[in-house]
Amino acid sequence: MTEIFSGSFTQQEPIPEEAIEAAVAVLRHGRLHRYNVAAGELGETALLEQEFAAQTGARYCVAVASGGYAMATALRAAGVRPGDTVLTNVFTLAPVPGSIAAVGAVPVFVGVTEALTIDLDDLAAKARATTARVLMLSHMRGHICDMDALMAICTAHGITVIEDCAHTMGAAWRGTPSGRFGLFGCYSCQTYKHVNSGEGGLLITNDAKAAARAVMMSGSYMLYERHLAAPPPEVFESVKYDTPNISGRMDNLRAAILRPQLRALPDQVDRWNARYRALEDGLRGTPGLQVIERPAEESFVGSSIQVLLKGWQPDAIGEVVTRCARRGVEIKWFGGAEPVGFTSRYDSWRYAPSAPMPESDAVLGAILDMRVPLTFSIEDCAQIARIIRAEVGAVWQTGPSGQAVAGG
Question: For residue 160, what is the enclosing H or E element?
Answer without folding.
Answer: strand 160-164
